[in-house]
Amino acid sequence: MDDLYKILGVDKKTDVSEIKRAYRKLAQKYHPDVSGKKDAETEKKFKEINQAYEVLSDPQKRAQYDQFGSVGNGPAGPGGFDFNGFDFGNFNGAFDFGSSFGDIFSSVFGRGTRRGSAGPERGDDIEIAINVSFEESVQGTEKPIEYSRLILCAHCKGKGAEPGSKIVTCHTCQGTGQQIRVQRTPLGQIQTATVCRTCEGSGEKADKKCAKCHGEGRTHERNRITVRIPAGIFDKAAIRLNGKGEIGRQGGEPGDLYVHIKVTPSREFERVKDDIHTTRKIHVLQAILGDEIQVKTIHGDAALKIPAGTPGGKVFELKGYGVPKVGAGTKGDHFIKIDVEIPTKLSKKDRELYEQLAKDAKLNIKPQSKGFFN
Ligand SMILES: [Zn+2]
Ligand SMILES: [Zn+2]
After folding, report:
1. 246 C-alpha to center of ligand 2: Å?
2. For 245, which DSSP code?
3. Which ligand is nearest to the CA of 118?
4. Which-ligand-closest: CA of 195?
5. Given CA atoms 67, 68, 71, 75 in this order, what sign does their dihedral have?
6. 175 near 203, Cβ under 8 Å?
7. Which CATH class for the 270-360 domain?
8. Torsion angle of the four alpha carbons 99, 102, 107, 110, in this order, in degrees rounded to the nearest 10
């Protein structure tokens, strides 16, 4: 997509009313009826201006364009998944896993497929979502999935015509191969010619549609595949599987399949990027005397040395006990925050020992009974 801001001669911070003004000025200059110029260059320029305005005057499209440099066209294709309102968080990167995995993307925008042009067209992408447990996201897994997609119709070999049928003039466009579309703009109605959808611009079609696909050239199939989920996959990531989307019209190449990952959070482990954060309660005596304890990590139990005199709130780090970094072969770390538990129930003997300790420390304290609110 060309720089839409440049086309309208405005910059990225320009507000809508300013964009409207810029558009009006340019549209008047290049409108075929206003300018009196009907050459191809003017027409092309006018089209560009309209396209730029269509995106930049719509806050949602403009936001998409600003973020991704393009804007998806229309809703998801047949069998597609509607991701309106899907929250992609702040992740904005893409990983390449070479041949073993698909690419991972954060976005579903900007992958719309053009419609209405003649000749082969790339098929639509398909979006599906799957749930992955926290453990699976950490260890990696394989998930069998099943989805519906369009494939080439075997009966007509994708041509849409019943084998052996006659070729006649297209009724929709009377053989011109074009359809006239009327568009409303702030300057009034504008007519644009688009390629006839019935005949894909050829001006003719078969008199009998394929009995299997009703002329579409494609039929639905259930596709079963196994998706490899790499260890360390994060919530809201998407895995792209090349060529697993819809087959294109008129033998066009297939679109891609995007598998969106939803990771169920863990009750025990909090993940921040590739690190794990947990809190561990220890007894006040462990904090005072020190201890060696076993802590649960995502890779099993690990020994942690608590030095004598460890204060509450202290954070220990277990290096390399975090989540595998996708595609990197390294791991994040596990951070354990210590929470020192003060015993609330003391036996008579406990109490005497603590009081003795207080005396030895020459602490002239006035022991109290349990708090009013306890
Ligand atoms: Zn067919
Ligand atoms: Zn036609």
Report:
1. 24
2. S
3. 2
4. 2
5. negative
6. yes
7. mainly beta
8. 70
Rounded to the nearest whole angstrom, what is the distance from the C-alpha of residue 179 to the centroid of ligand 2? Answer: 8
Query: Considering just the CA atoms, what is the radius of gyration of the chain in Å?
Result: 32
Q: How far is the CA of 181 from the centre of ligand 2 (A)?
A: 14
CA of 91 to the centre of ligand 2 (A): 45
Enter the pTM of the model.
0.57
CA–centroid distance, 119 to ligand 2, in Å, is 13
What's the gap in Å between 230 CA and the centre of ligand 1?
38
Q: Tens of pLDDT along 285-341?
A: 999 999 999 999 999 999 999 999 999 999 999 999 999 998 888 999 999 999 999
Using the mean position of ligand 2's atoms as its centre, give its distance from the Cα of residue 114 in Å.
18
Q: What is the rounded distance in angstroms from the CA atom of residue 77 to the CA atom of residue 70?
A: 18
CATH classification (class only), 1-71: mainly alpha
Contact 43, 50 (CB under 8 A): no
Residues of the chain with CATH 2.60.260.20: 72-165+208-263, 270-360
Q: Could you give the count of Cα atoms lying within 13 Å of 78 in the half-sphere of its Cβ? A: 15
Q: Which fold has domain 72-165+208-263?
A: HSP40/DNAj peptide-binding domain (2.60.260)
Q: How far is CA 121 from the centre of its chain?
A: 24
Amino acid occupying residue 351: R
Say how many Å lie between the CA of residue 219 and the centre of ligand 1. 7
Ligand 1 midpoint to CA 37 (Å): 45
**Residue 216: nearest ligand to its CA?**
1
Contacts of 209 (CB under 8 A, 6+ apart): 160, 161, 162, 215
Q: 227 CA distance to ligand 1 centroid (A)? A: 30
pLDDT tens across 226-239, in order? 999 999 999 999 99
